[in-house]
Amino acid sequence: MAQPLFTNSSPDDSTQSGAGDSTQSGGSDSTQTGSLGPQDTFTHPEQLPALDLFGDTVSHAGLRINTSAGTLVQNISNYGGPSTWDALSLLGGGISVAEARPKFGFVASYQGGVDISNGYYTSTLEEVSQTAFANLSWNFAKRWQLRAKDSYIYSSDPFQPFFTYLGQPTANNPNPVVYFPQAIAEQNNAELDLTYELSAHDVINFNGTESLLRYIRGGIADELYNSVSYSEGAFYQHQYSARLAFGGGYQFAALDFGHGAERAGVNNFEGFASYVFNAHVQASLWIGPELTGTKDIVPVFCNQFGCFVEIMHDSSWSLAEGGTLKWRISPSNEVNLQASRGVSNAGGLLGAANIYQATATYSRPLSRAWNLGAALQYNDSTSVSNFRAEQYVKAFAGTVNVSRRLFNNSWTMNAYFALIHQNQNFFGLPDKSFTDGLGVTVQYVWSHGLGR
User: Fold this and answer.
1) What's the sign of the alpha-carbon dihedral 148, 154, 155, 158?
2) Half-sphere exposure in the Cβ direction for 366 (13 Å, CA)
3) Domain boundaries, the chain
4) pTM of the model
5) What count of other Cβ atoms lies within 10 Å of the Cβ of residue 369?
6) Which fold has domain 11-450?
7) What is the mean pLDDT of the chain?
8) Greater pLDDT, 37 or 273
């Protein structure tokens, strides 16, 4: 089933419930606000870890088992074809374990099930759906912290990969920006961070990431659209005051499409600053020059014996920038705004691309039992590859989700509406696609604490 943006246990939140802060209130909030065990490092450079992340805590562990069932009905108008109705049903279950100690913490979870889709023009299709997450934090010395994180998705639900990673497309948080019905998306994202606390006001962070994206089935099952990305970087942050922090760093990303058919290297030098206006409002900005080099293998002439190809190289300078605004209206009522521009992996279908993106999310409780979440996203991606000159994807997405705790809070019901409108020019003639879906999911969770 599609994962709505705001649930009590979104994939990203579940990786942080044991080793990180357990007080997070929404799917859009990936920062850490407490000191309950080893803390996560950062999502983007202006969100480096708090300087008190090495505080002590009480050891505890937990086990959670869940089972869920749901259905999604979607209407698809795809690239000039007739409008069709599809129904997608999911039956599944999962398990997660977590443990937090004063200097070590981990959480691991697995969710498996079966996706059953029925289309107006297609026969019934059954596919295995799997997600797995692991997060480990280790304060192995007084001033050092090591964190490793990995997430995996294999699903025929096109909404799931698109909305799970709704946010800024950065090297350590890649974001698919292209929607395809009837395709199976396989993704694996891994991060490794090493943080050193230089002093009471200074932190330095080293990071490395890997991202795999593969499409299976559907009109885009082409090796050229599969991609692998790697990055590494180093960042420094200084806490000037209780309100102001700033710093800078360097990051390099290597992007590979179609097993070497297209490659790109992105060098980014940036400075960043974050400012806390008051207890409810904080903002951050980042900006810096970006050098992108591309290599494309372009077929010139092909016959039954093979192809003559031309290898094309290009490089260009650009400016990467972005900003965030977070307004916590109340402890459980929050607005997040963010916008960014930079060269990254645009879901594999454009090669390396200039990505302009703006996102707005809102979450609040409607009552003691009901919660509301909403999000809007606009994305404009244009290829920087010579082989894909003038190819682009422009997409607008939105979702509204309501959830309710049932019975003794072990049961949760989620209902959501989602839509995606997309203009594209990456194969054939420029065209448009539109889809919207209405889904309902019911989940039962059994939780048990282990130890003290």
Assistant:
1) positive
2) 11
3) 11-450
4) 0.77
5) 12
6) Porin (2.40.160)
7) 76
8) 273
